[in-house]
Each structure stands twice: as structure tokens, then as C-alpha cells.
């Protein structure tokens, strides 16, 4: 499929398509594309990524309803406002009933995927998570359920999968071990993060890896490693967004990542894993008013509007100035639909599985423990 991508382009961009798609780019080529600020080269890159996306997904943009269910976290990532060491934020947890109420609201608005995301909160042990997963799947059997709860033992992931969870988001954050060490305290490790991603894949989840762009200490070489890791892992989803400082973290006085770099990485991730689901992230919309629309034009094909109750939105403060914290779920749903249409894409409220999805199953050779 991938090899005929360039033949579908318009004449103007055909040269770029042939150069950038259908073959593995060298490290030197990738480093050039990671760093180029040349408007013509960036246009060609985004156009090539757009054509690859069209081969697999056409103009469709899928919706996910995001439920930020806990702002407690036992970790201390240096970049994140939810880190345990941040004494300034007010913490909250949603009850199972409140989570279900968010899903009901989402269902009324047409969502067919719910994403439960939170800090690594030991209060939500396996028992509680499986209970919530089962309750959501019982009430909304047609809908997909994505979890994003951080690192857990394989057994926990297996329990979540058996309870009905379909997908798991766990950004690897950076594929460069030295860079990982500068973004996290010593008790966290890239090897463990990667191990979790591999286990999740073996269990049968559609898996999302990903990284921030423009994070402190990041070099073009780090981003090259991110792309090579994506090629190796072949995740079904790739989450990419600019780093944005949060005042009460160790990185609070660092600068945010640039829009152009984030867009180039979305496009390069699309070329690296052609059929991946790639969101136009909230962080993109935070650093530029039209950041999400530009991400769609650079190869993204998913949006994740917020379904969390309005009274807790501001408290899920990963970074400063996050958009949509004052808006109702319905307002975001229709706002983003309008934005997608005006950018020339087709909003779709279906489950929006990965293009290669052939039903829930555990890959051969990997049995789930009873
Ligand atoms: N705790 C889970 C985890 O870390 O995988 C899920 C929630 S965590 C808040 C979701 C993502 O937010 C992280 O993977 C990270 O990439 C992103 N994030 C955290 N702090 C950020 C910041 N300052 N700027 C941009 N993205 C940030
Ligand atoms: Fe916790 Fe995730 Fe934030 Fe790290 S990124 S502090 S694990 S919520
Ligand atoms: Fe939330 Fe526009 S998407 S208000």
C-alpha cells in the first residue's frame, strides 16, 4: 500500500512524495527534515505525510472523549504539573459513578471511544480499574475504551484487557536513555517504559507510544531515535505534542517547544508508521490557536476533546494555559467538529480503530493468564 503513495499526489508535490515516501530515509535525511525551517521543504513534508494518511484513512478524523479521572501521581517527572512534588496543585479523583456520567455525556454527544487518563495513582488499584472498565463496557459495548494510567506490571495490563479495555496510551517520552535520565528522577527508566509498551502489544492492546517535542535537553539526535523506535515498535497510535512549561515544576522556566518542530515530527511519524492513529493534540492547540488544524494538515487524524467534568478541568494542570478548560464537553465537541471541517477534513464519530485492526485478539504465542 505504502509504495503507491507518491502516485496519488497532485503534480505539484509529486517530487516530494517520491523522495519522502515508500522507502526508508537515512539518518542524515531524517536529521535534515527534523531541523529544516525552510518553508518549501516543510510544505513538501506535510503534503507527503498528508498523502500517506489519505491512503489509510482518507479525510477521516476520529474523535476520542478524554476523561481525566485522577490528578494524583506517585511519580515525579520533571516536566509535569501532576508530579508528586508539586504541592501547589489541588488534587482530585473522580468516582466510578462520575466517570460513568462522563461516558453517558460522551455517548449522548456521539462518542464511540472513551479515554481514561490519569496520573499513576495507587488508589486506583487493579480491582478498581477492572471494575470501572467492566462497567463502561457493559453499558457501552459498542464503544472502544482506551486506558492511559502509566506503568503497571504485565499482570495488571492483562486484567484490564480481559475486563474489556481495547487500547493503551503510554508515551515513551524520549527514546534517548540519557535524555530520559534528564527528564525523570533516577527511579524511572526508559527500559521499563519500553518494556511496558512491548508487553501491552503482546497482550493484544492497540498501543500508543509517543513523545514531547522541544523538551528541555532534547537534541535532533533524540528525535531521530524517537522515529527509529517508532519504526521498530510499530505502535498503532503515536501521541506527539510540544513540551509546555508548568510554573510549579523543575522545568517551569524553560521555553515551550515550537509549533514547526511539533508539526514536522507529526509528519515524520506519519511517514515512519504510515497507518498509525496520530492525534492533533491539545498541546498543539495550546501553543497556537490553529495548532490542531495544522497538525491534521501535517498527517494527524484523531482529536481528543475533553469529557471531564468542568469543575476539575483546570486542576488537571500538566502545563500552563491549557485550552478548553473553561468549556463544556458539548462546546468542545462542536467547536472541534467545525475546525475539522474548515480545515478540509471529515469528522467521524465511529470507534476509529487502527487501519489494520481485525478484531480483539492476543497475538500468537502469548497466552493471557487466567
Ligand atoms: N501518567 C500517565 C503517563 O505519564 O503516561 C498518563 C498521564 S500524563 C499527564 C500524559 C502525558 O502528558 C505524558 O505522557 C506527557 O507526554 C504529557 N505531558 C506531561 N507534562 C507535559 C508538559 N509539561 N508539556 C506537554 N506535555 C506534557
Ligand atoms: Fe505522573 Fe504521568 Fe505526569 Fe509523569 S507524566 S508526573 S507519570 S501524570
Ligand atoms: Fe474545546 Fe474548541 S475544542 S473549545
Features:
370 residues, alpha/beta, 3-stranded parallel beta sheet, 41% helix, binds S-adenosylmethionine, binds FE2/S2 (inorganic) cluster
Written account of the structure:
The chain is built from 14 helices and nine strands. By secondary structure, the chain is α/β, with parallel strands linked by helices. It has a single domain, classed as Alpha-Beta Barrel (TIM Barrel), CATH 3.20.20. The strands form two sheets. It has a six-stranded parallel beta sheet with strand order 2-3-4-5-6-7. Helix 4 links the parallel strand 2 (65-70) and strand 3. The structure holds S-adenosylmethionine, iron/sulfur cluster (SF4) and FE2/S2 (inorganic) cluster (FES).
Write the layout of secondary structure elements.
Elements: H1 14-20, H2 27-35, H3 39-57, E1 60-63, E2 65-70, H4 96-108, E3 113-118, H5 126-139, E4 144-148, H6 154-163, E5 167-169, H7 177-183, H8 190-203, E6 206-213, H9 220-233, E7 237-242, H10 259-272, H11 282-287, H12 291-297, E8 302-303, H13 310-313, H14 329-342, E9 346-348
Parallel strand pairs: 1-8, 1-9, 2-3, 3-4, 4-5, 5-6, 6-7
The structure holds S-adenosylmethionine, iron/sulfur cluster and FE2/S2 (inorganic) cluster (FES).
S-adenosylmethionine (SAM) binds at residues 79-80, 82, 117, 119-120, 148, 150, 170-171, 173, 212, 241, 243-244, 246, 283, 318-319.
Superfamily at the CATH H level? Aldolase class I
Helices and strands, in N-to-C order? HHHEEHEHEHEHHEHEHHHEHHE
Strand order of the largest sheet: 2-3-4-5-6-7
Can you tell me the CATH topology? TIM Barrel
| Approximate helicity band | 40-55%
Amino acid at each position: 500500500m505504502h509504495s503507491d503513495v507518491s502516485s496519488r499526489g497532485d503534480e505539484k508535490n509529486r517530487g516530494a512524495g517520491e523522495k519522502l515516501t515508500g522507502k526508508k530515509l537515512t539518518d542524515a535525511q531524517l536529521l535534515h527534515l527534523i531541523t529544516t525551517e525552510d518553508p518549501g521543504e516543510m510544505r513538501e513534508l506535510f503534503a507527503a505525510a498528508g498523502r500517506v494518511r489519505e491512503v489509510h484513512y482518507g479525510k477521516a478524523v476520529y474523535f476520542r472523549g478524554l476523561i481525566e479521572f485522577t490528578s494524583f501521581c506517585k511519580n515525579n517527572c520533571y516536566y509535569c504539573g501532576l508530579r508528586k512534588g508539586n504541592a501547589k496543585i489541588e488534587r482530585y479523583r473522580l468516582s466510578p459513578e462520575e466517570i460513568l456520567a462522563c461516558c453517558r455525556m460522551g455517548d449522548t454527544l456521539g462518542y464511540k471511544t472513551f479515554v481514561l487518563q490519569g496520573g499513576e495513582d495507587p488508589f486506583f488499584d487493579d480491582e478498581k480499574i477492572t471494575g470501572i472498565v467492566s462497567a463502561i463496557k457493559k453499558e457501552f459495548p459498542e464503544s472502544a475504551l482506551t486506558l492511559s494510567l502509566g506503568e503497571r506490571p504485565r499482570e495488571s495490563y492483562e486484567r484490564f484487557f480481559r475486563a474489556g479495555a481495547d487500547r493503551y496510551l503510554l508515551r515513551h517520552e524520549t527514546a534517548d536513555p540519557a535524555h530520559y535520565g534528564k527528564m525523570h528522577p533516577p527511579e524511572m527508566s526508559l527500559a521499563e517504559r519500553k518494556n511496558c509498551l512491548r508487553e501491552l502489544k503482546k497482550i493484544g492492546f492497540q498501543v500508543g507510544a509517543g513523545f514531547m517535542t522541544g523538551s528541555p535537553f532534547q537534541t535532533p539526535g533524540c528525535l531521530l531515535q524517537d522515529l527509529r523506535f517508532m519504526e521498530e515498535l510499530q505502535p498503532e497510535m503515536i501521541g506527539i505534542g510540544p513540551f509546555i512549561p508548568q510554573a510549579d515544576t523543575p522545568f517551569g522556566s524553560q521555553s515551550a517547544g515550537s509549533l514547526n518542530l511539533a508539526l514536522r515530527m507529526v509528519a515524520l511519524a506519519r511517514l515512519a508508521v504510515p497507518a498509525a492513529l496520530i492525534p492533533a493534540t491539545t498541546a498543539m492547540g495550546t501553543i497556537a490557536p490553529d495548532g490542531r488544524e495544522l497538525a491534521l494538515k501535517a498527517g494527524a487524524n484523531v482529536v481528543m476533546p475533553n469529557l471531564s467534568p468542568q469543575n476539575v478541568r483546570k486542576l488537571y494542570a500538566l502545563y500552563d494555559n491549557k485550552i478548553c478548560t473553561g468549556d463544556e464537553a458539548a462546546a468542545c465537541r462542536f467547536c472541534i467538529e467545525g475546525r475539522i471541517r474548515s480545515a478540509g477534513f471529515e469528522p467521524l464519530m465511529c470507534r476509529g480503530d487502527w487501519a489494520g485492526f481485525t478484531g480483539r485478539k492476543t497475538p500468537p504465542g502469548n497466552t493471557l493468564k487466567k
